């Protein structure tokens, strides 16, 4: 039964299923949580500039993303794509301009930050537990085709498998803003399809995707943000 058909009045809530299971109160609490208005997710760059190592990488970058929208940052090596994502994540300060983000961000970059000695399942659970999202992990691992790799130590994973693990970490997080740095690097076509479907699900739920990539990534409601490097950037 759909959420909107949910009616009160019986000892067992109709959404609890034929065999009962959840009590009326538990189901009503769950539905109240689902109905609770979430603040609308937004990410804005207004006239942003980035300086690294004393060199101006880019300037005058503006971008406005709302719920369900996406952008792909393009540009040659060294143009500052990763730097732009780090600015969006709040890990790097813009040299000029204004960055506003409404909603937590999850960043997937080349550093998966997974304990190499732990089995993949445990390494991912460490982060999911910190995020209070342990229950979301099995679905995230399934989304990236990782379930069978759960017992394998992280250090034994291939490049593509490690990339999929980093993406599963983002999927399991509750962050409405996904920042994906070269997310298709090392992924085969099946894994790219999985990532695209995960992004579509995330956007449909009101999330934002900002990705930096040299390769194609099919996203809906997407805008392209080409980074034109300054002479200073020497890309
Ligand atoms: N910590 C740092 N200190 C100084 N300079 C840095 C630092 N990190 C990156 N840079 C420089 O900033 C420039 C932009 O780097 P960035 O990784 O943002 O580029 P990119 O567009 O993502 O490149 P690529 O396509 O190769 O991934 C590069 O010239 C790089 O050497």
UniProtKB/TrEMBL annotation:
InterPro entries: AAA+_ATPase (IPR003593), ABC_transporter-like_ATP-bd (IPR003439), ABC_transptr_haem_export_CcmA (IPR005895), P-loop_NTPase (IPR027417). It holds the Pfam family ABC_tran. Keywords: ATP-binding, Cytochrome c-type biogenesis, Membrane, Nucleotide-binding, Translocase, Transport. Coiled coil: none annotated. GO terms for molecular function: ATP binding; ATP hydrolysis activity; transmembrane transporter activity. The lineage of its organism: Bacteria, Pseudomonadati, Pseudomonadota, Alphaproteobacteria, Sphingomonadales. One of its GO terms (biological process) is cytochrome complex assembly. The gene is ccmA. This is Heme ABC exporter ATP-binding protein CcmA. Residues 43-235 form the ABC transporter domain.
């Amino acid at each position: 039964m759909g959420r909107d058909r949910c009616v009160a009045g019986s000892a067992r809530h109709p959404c609890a299923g034929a065999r009962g299971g959840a009590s009326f109160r538990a189901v009503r609490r769950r539905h109240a949580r689902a109905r609770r208005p979430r603040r609308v997710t937004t990410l804005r760059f207004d006239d942003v500039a980035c300086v690294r190592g004393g060199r101006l990488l880019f300037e005058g970058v503006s971008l406005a993303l709302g719920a369900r929208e996406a952008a792909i940052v393009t540009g040659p090596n060294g143009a500052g794509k990763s730097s732009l994502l780090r600015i969006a994540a709040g890990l790097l300060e813009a040299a000029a301009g204004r960055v506003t983000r409404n909603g937590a961000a999850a960043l997937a970059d080349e550093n998966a930050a997974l304990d190499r000695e732990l089995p993949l399942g445990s390494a991912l659970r460490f982060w999911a537990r910190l995020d209070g999202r342990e229950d979301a992990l099995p679905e995230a691992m399934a989304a990236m085709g990782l379930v069978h790799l759960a017992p394998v130590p992280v250090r034994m994973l291939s490049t593509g498998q490690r990339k999929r693990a980093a993406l599963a970490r983002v999927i399991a997080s509750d962050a409405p803003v996904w920042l994906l740095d070269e997310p298709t690097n090392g992924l085969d076509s099946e894994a790219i399809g999985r990532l695209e479907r995960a992004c579509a699900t995330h956007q449909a739920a009101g999330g934002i995707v900002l990705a930096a990539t040299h390769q194609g990534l099919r996203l809906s409601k997407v805008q392209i943000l080409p980074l034109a490097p300054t002479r200073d950037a020497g890309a």
